[in-house]
Amino acid sequence: MAFPANRLRRLRINSLVRSRLAETEVSSRQLILPLFVRPGRGLRTPISSMPGQFQWSLDRLIPEIQALVRRGLRSVLLFGIPSRKDNRASEAYAAQGIIQQAVRAMKKKFPDLLVITDLCFCEYTPHGHCGIIRNGHLDNDATLGLIAKTAIAQARAGADIIAPSGMIDGMVKTIRQALDRQGFQNTLIMSYAAKYASSFYGPFREAADCAPRFGNRKSYQMNPANAEEALREAGMDIDEGADIIMIKPALAYLDIIRRVRETYHVPVAAYNVSGEYAMVKAAGQNGWMDDKTVAREILTSIRRAGADLIITYHAKELL
Ligand SMILES: [Zn+2]
Asked: For residue 291, which of 262, 260, 318, 259 has the smallest C-alpha distance?
């Protein structure tokens, strides 16, 4: 039946009606806050391109998390900035590596907090690439050995979910086998399945001190022009044992989130990346947009596209 019997504006008539009929919700349960941890004491170093975000030493981070947990924080994704970088990325899998220390401290202090660890080597190598470099190229299969070692070190420290982000072929299978062999059958894998070679990562490279010293990451991260390939990547990771599939970045890739959601019946995560955050914050600081409401709208769109979980620097303000 057409107008006037049907008036769609009735569905929006006031906030009582609007809020009851909202199809999509963003709640603290779905948000994952990324955090940058480094060795040392008393550190809370601002990241200039990401207002409101910091590099933390553990002694300063724990009270911060405590306050956020009280406000409803449920999940964190940890990135480590080691004191020492080398070509074997040793700090990534050392028992006393910064991530392992951070996981142990957090699981002890906040047993109800879901702790996810990023697994990559770009922060841990002097060249800033995501694995072992041979003859100027990232050596896929040599990198798998480091991935297995690091996954075990993170699981042993108590990580709930391991999140490999290097776009190395076979990384999920390698991690699943390594974890199972060591008795970590219940540790989940959240795979960065479709991670694009994106310029939206710019601010992150300052945050994690991981800009490549030569070349770029286009031989392992995906071409932004490709969607079919993203489905193939996701399918392979699921076959290899990924529990959760991640799409990164989120905002310029909402179609990928939607297609992965419709093709596979697994939990889908989306990473609302540093550049997406920086754009909103910069516009807010200039008075060009209301950054708080824009952030909420963006996160709603990511949920609407089909993401079950959103990794976002806005998590703190949203809580
Ligand atoms: Zn990396």
From this structure: 318
**Cβ pair 201, 273 in contact under 8 A:** yes
CB atoms within 10 A of CB 143: 25
First vs last Cα of the chain: how many Å apart?
42
- Ligand 1 center to residue 104 CA distance, Å? 23
Q: Are 164 and 175 in contact (CB under 8 A)?
A: yes
**What does pTM read for this prediction?**
0.96
Distance in Å, CA 21 to ligand 1 centroid: 41
Measured in whole angstroms, how far is the alpha carbon of residue 259 from the centre of its chain?
Answer: 19
What are the phi and psi torsion angles at 119 (to 5°)?
-120, 100
The position carrying tokens 């028992």 is 95
Domains and CATH numbers, the chain: 25-209+227-318 (3.20.20.70)
Active site (catalytic) residues? 195, 248
Which residue, among 214, 237, 89, 78, has the nearest Cα to 149 in the 3D structure? 89
Whether residue 14 is predicted with pLDDT greater than 90 in this model: the reply is yes
Main-chain dihedrals φ then ψ at residue 247, nearest 5 degrees: -115, 135
| Of 10-14, 88-92, 97-101, 209-213, minimum mean pLDDT range | 209-213
* pLDDT tens-digit readout, 230-285: 999 999 999 999 999 999 999 999 999 999 999 999 999 999 999 999 999 999 99
3-state secondary structure of 234: helix
d(CA 27, CA 24): 10
User: What pLDDT score was predicted for residue 110?
Assistant: 98
Q: Are strands 114-119 and 161-164 parallel, antiparallel or unpaired?
A: parallel
- Measured in Å, residue 288 CA sits from the centre of ligand 1 at 33
pLDDT at res. 261? 98
How far apart are alpha carbons 313 and 34 in whole angstroms? 6
Q: What distance in angstroms lies between residue 79's CA and the mean position of ligand 1's atoms?
A: 10
pLDDT above 90: residue 215: no
d(CA 186, CA 260): 24
